Amino acid sequence: MRRATSDHWLMRCLLIAITGAFILFFLIFPVAVILVEALRNGIGFYFSSLTAHHSQTAIRLTLLVALAVVPLNTIFGVCAAWAVTHFQFRGKALLISLIEIPLWVSPVIGGLVFALIFGQKGWLGPWLTAHNIQILFAYPGIVLATAFVTFPFVARGLIPLMQSQGSAEEEAALTLGANGWQLFWRVSFPKIKWGVLHGMILCNARAMGEFGAVSVVAGSVDDRITMPLQIEQYYLNFSLPQAFALASLLLLLSVITLAIKIALEWRKLAPVITRLH
Amino acid sequence: MNAVSPIVERRYRQTPLETVQKQPQIFRRISRKHILPGFHLTLGFTIFYLSTIVLIPLAALVLKTVTPTADFPSIYHVIGHVVRVAFDLRSLDSYRLSFGLSFVAALLDGFFGFIAAWALIRYSFPGKKIVDAMVDLPFAMPTSVAGLALTQVFSTNGGYIGQVLDEWFGWKIAYTVWGILIALTFIGFPFVVRTLQPVMADLAVEVEEAAACLGANRWQTFCRVIFPAVSPALLTGIMLAFGRAVGEYGSIVFISSMIPYLTEITPQLIIIKLEEFDYVGAAGLGLVMLLMSFFIVASVNLLQHLATRHRRVA
User: Fold this and answer.
1) Do residue B53 and residue A174 have CB atoms under 8 angstroms apart?
2) What are the phi and psi torsion angles at B245 (to 5°)?
3) Minimum distance, in Å, between the CA of residue B65 and any CA atom of chain A
4) How many CB pairs (< 8 A) connect A and B?
5) Which residues have CB under 8 Å from A208's CB, separation 6+?
6) Strand, helix or coil at A267?
7) Is the pLDDT of residue B283 over 90?
């Protein structure tokens, strides 16, 4: 006999089927299409489209942007989590909500704000032109916009993690004579290292894949665009195989990110973050 | 041998609570604040970096909508232009599309997300762990990659579902409103599942057993017992998906034809204003979207507040 709290087997099959169909059509199918389309013209063509000049410059710029943004946001995340979890001060709740702002606003806004500051008719535009400094449509602008969008990623994971750990061990280390630096590297950091890694890979995935914010500040100057923008350029030029080849690289990145994230969360090394955006 | 000196004994007799209460107010505050090092350093850097990357740029956007420029000599001209752009027919159509489609997409996510979360929590089936892991894919996948893939899947000449639907029924998905809807549903799906899963896992079986003992059938139990308990989480998930969809740009660029008044979303209109060097207009539209996001944040916070209060009572 069926238990009172379990569903009828027909219902069960129906719901599992709906879930499976949704996942199949919306998630697995698009992923498979990227791989099929990328490899449609053979493996040789695939590698030649990845080593093409435009792809190469886009990959290099994307890596350089991530190399600047991820460390900056990681240092910020650790500092913010340290300040928020170990000390009491007025306006703490406000500070936490302010840190989360970039999660809520459209990525296009993240690019727009920097365009309004550094653009030709922006606040600093005329001054920058007079001094021949290029921020918009160049590396600094892309870094700023990406930093805005990925801003809370490390901090948001670390704050609940460090709150759950408390300050007792740090206080004990202090009474044993550790100075601040020793305290952080020998006591605190070993406790949060997986949480930091968790935040860093999420931050990195978003930084490399960001489209909206970067498309505002990068314009469409050919050798000054990141991988997602280059995918759009290839798509607009009807070079679909190249677009899919580049997309497959980003897909690989997101699959690796997901694998590390899940491995960390299932081993309870890092807090489960439900809201990644 | 184990004799305790009278002073120590007297100290021990006080409960810790009394000890804390007898400390002067100022001493308590300082000791809590300054036990660990690095307060000024970390808070200082946090506030500096937060201001540089987020607060000052956002303030620049808001100020842009009220500051006179060469084109708009007085504050009335500026605000007039902002209002004109914000309530322009083209902008209104873009809001209708952005907010309307995001709303429908969020409802679809709510429906499918509820079923998926229920199946993942309640049932066991082969491949369950893989399905659970794949739910996060729209989070991890760059939006441009998702947009490119969905466009290929649903375009009439892509050779996949879109071509079949066009040949059999004459339905066109990509480059129409339906394409945008599919992309927005795709990116919002994990929010509902991930918000619902912990709440569904926490549901007490005893409550359902009690409902069954009292004579409720499965459908009544679901409608009157289970659904009310998870509905705040469902609503939160739907609002999160809605908020994400409203700001989405990366995947829509690919799957939408971006025709003004018809398939043009608000973020796209902001970029067009910037390219026309209408910075004030772009800032105005940005402000509209910013206000909308804050409205969504506020309602999510309110929902969570209500949900926790509800749980505490129950």
Assistant:
1) no
2) -70, -35
3) 11
4) 289
5) A62, A63, A65, A66, A226, A227, A250, A253, B142
6) coil
7) yes
Quote the pLDDT of residue A74. Answer: 96
- Provide the shortest C-alpha distance from residue B28 to chain A (in Å): 12
Confidence of residue A275 (pLDDT cuts 50, 70, 90): very low
Residue of B nearest to A236 (CA): B254
- Provide the whole-model pTM: 0.87
**A151–B270 C-beta distance less than 8 A:** no
Does residue B48 carry a pLDDT above 90? yes
Q: What is the mean pLDDT of residues A165-191?
A: 89
Q: With beta carbons under 8 A apart, name residues in chain B contacting A262.
A: 133, 136
Q: Between residues 72 and 111 of chain B, which touch chain A (CB distance below 8 Å)?
A: none
For the segment A181-190, the average pLDDT, to the nearest whole number, is: 90
Amino acid found at A60? R
CB contact under 8 A, B253 and A20: no
| Mean pLDDT (whole number) for B250-267 | 87
Q: Give dist(CA A251, CA A36) in Å, integer.
A: 13
Distance of CA B216 to the CA centre of its chain: 36
What tens digit of pLDDT does each residue of A227-271 get? 999 999 999 888 889 999 999 999 999 999 999 988 888 877 666
Question: In B, residues 221-240, which contact A (CB 8 Å cutoff)?
Answer: 240
Distance (Å) of CA A158 to CA A118, A258, B194: 32, 18, 19
B82-313 fold: MetI-like fold (1.10.3720)
Residue B232 C-alpha, separation from nearest chain A C-alpha, in angstroms: 16
- A34 closest CB neighbour out of B42, B145, B212: B145
CA gyration radius for chain A?
Answer: 23
- Tokens of residue A246, six digits: 């580049």
Domain parsing of chain A, residue ranges: 1-38, 43-266
- Name which of B46, B53, B277 is nearest A83 (Cβ-Cβ): B46
Using an 8 Å CB-CB cutoff, list chain B residues near A95: 46-47, 50
Contact B61 A116 (CB under 8 A): yes
pLDDT of residue A277: 38
Question: pLDDT of B171-195, one tens digit each?
Answer: 888 888 999 999 999 999 999 999 9
Note whether B112 contacts A72, CB cutoff 8 Å: no
Has residue A77 got a pLDDT over 90? yes
Cβ-defined contact of B145 to A27 (cutoff 8 Å) = no
Every domain of chain B and the residues it spans:
6-65, 82-313
The CATH classification of domain A43-266, taken from the options 1.10.3720.10, 3.40.630.30, 3.40.50.10490, 3.30.70.270: 1.10.3720.10
Chain B residues in contact with A105 by the CB 8 A cut-off are: 247, 289-290, 293
pLDDT attached to residue A249 = 93
